[in-house]
Amino acid sequence: MNGTLTQQMVHISVQHYLVVAAILFCIGLYGVTASRNLIKVLMSIELLLNAVNLNFIAFSKYINPEAAGAGGALTGQMVAIFVITVAAAEAGVGLAIALNVFKHFKTMDIDKLHLMKW
Amino acid sequence: MTLRFADKLVFGLLFSAAFLLLISILLFNHGETVAFYVLSITMISAAMGMVVVRDIIRSAFLLALTFLCMGGLYVVLNATFLAAAQILIYAGAVAILFVFGVMLTHQGGVDLPEHTFEFKLMTLIFVVCGLLLLLVRAVWGGMWRLGADPMPVENNISKIGELFFSTYLLPFEIASVILLMALMGAILIARKEPA
């Protein structure tokens, strides 16, 4: 962390990627909490998963290979592949549930879906 | 859907970002730096637009743009296989799935009600800005155990394939079972008659 501000801004380090991922995660979190459309909430969850993936891949480039796990420096990329798999499955099942909800309630407003709320 | 002025503005900014990216990679020494800034600024703007825009189909396309920029960042990070997977799976499949979801749940142009401005402001201040400050503080103050040099640019696709069938064999099989379950579950949930 020594060096002038210009040097820090020109030389891209792992912190830059982590900050971008943090900003993206916060945008996704805002989308999850502040939108009332079910589809938009699902989209924001995809944003959250993408932000986490960016963290993993940034670490896989910059990490010390001896300090990494069994896969060496590629561990982060392997984990990111599994995250993509699970996210795709989640998107498919989530969309199917959303379609079913729309068939039953004729609305996508999540504030109207309070069947399980006390 | 007619194009509004904002749509044309987005297209113009997008084309200039792509042009800047090409020029920077071809001409400058600091191609990586310029590519990082252009891609991340485009990505964050697209994500903000996706969350803020009221029209849901526009936010679906902005989501696809976010995924594309993320794939570009993976290329900058030497993760070429993941960049291809990101563009194929996310920008190709997931975004189109969301577009289908939007069209199948269309309500004839009736906009859904939104939360009040006070609620959104409170969320923005307490949840989002608080978490963002905490994360940025942790990132810039943390001591990371990093390598002396970044990972060298090389073809690591074959190594990923080897790892799939040696160290990560069990997670690989579990992932295939998850995909099969999701396929069957989605068909079972979304079909017309109850089972």
Q: Summarize this, please?
A:
With 118 residues, chain A is an all-alpha fold. Chain A has helices spanning 5-10, 14-34, 38-62, 75-105. Chain A contains 4 helices and no strands.
Explain the overall architecture.
The complex is a heterodimer of chains A (118) and B (195). With 118 residues, chain A is an all-alpha fold. Chain A has four helices and no strands. In chain A, helix 2 packs antiparallel against helix 3 and helix 3 packs antiparallel against helix 4. The N and C termini of chain A lie far apart (52 Å). The mean pLDDT of chain A is 85. With 195 residues, chain B is mostly helical. Chain B is 75% helix and 0% strand. Chain B is built from seven helices and no strands. The longest helix of chain B is centred in the middle third of the chain and has 25 residues. Chain B is globular. Chain B starts with a helix and ends in a 5-residue tail after the last helix. In chain B, 24% of the residues are buried. The model of chain B has no long low-confidence stretch (mean pLDDT 83). Chains A and B meet through helix 2, helix 3 and helix 4 of A and helix 2, helix 3, helix 4, helix 5 and helix 6 of B.
How would the blueprint of this fold be written?
The complex is a heterodimer of chains A (118) and B (195).
Chain A: H1 5-10, H2 14-34, H3 38-62, H4 75-105
Helix pairs in contact in A: 2-3, 3-4
Chain B: H1 5-27, H2 31-52, H3 56-76, H4 80-104, H5 117-141, H6 157-164, H7 169-190
Distance between the termini of chain A: 52 Å
The count of strands of chain B amounts to 0
Helix content of chain A: over 70%
- In round numbers, the mean pLDDT of chain A is 85
Task: Sketch the major β-sheet of chain B.
Answer: none
% residues in beta strands of chain A: under 5%
Overall mean confidence score, pLDDT of chain B? 83
Give the N-to-C terminal Cα separation of chain B.
Answer: 38 Å
Query: What global shape of chain A is seen?
Result: elongated
pLDDT < 50 runs, ≥5 residues of chain B: none
What is the CA-atom radius of gyration of chain B, in angstroms?
21 Å
Broad shape of chain B: globular
Question: What structural class do the secondary elements of chain B suggest?
Answer: mainly alpha
* Share in β-strands of chain B: under 5%
Quickly count the helices of chain B.
7
The count of β-strands of chain A is 0
Task: Describe the main β-sheet of chain A briefly.
Answer: none
Q: What oligomeric state best describes the polypeptide chains here?
A: heterodimer
Task: Give the radius of gyration of chain A.
Answer: 19 Å
Q: Helical element count of chain A?
A: 4
Ranges of chain A where pLDDT stays below 50 over 5 or more residues in a row are none
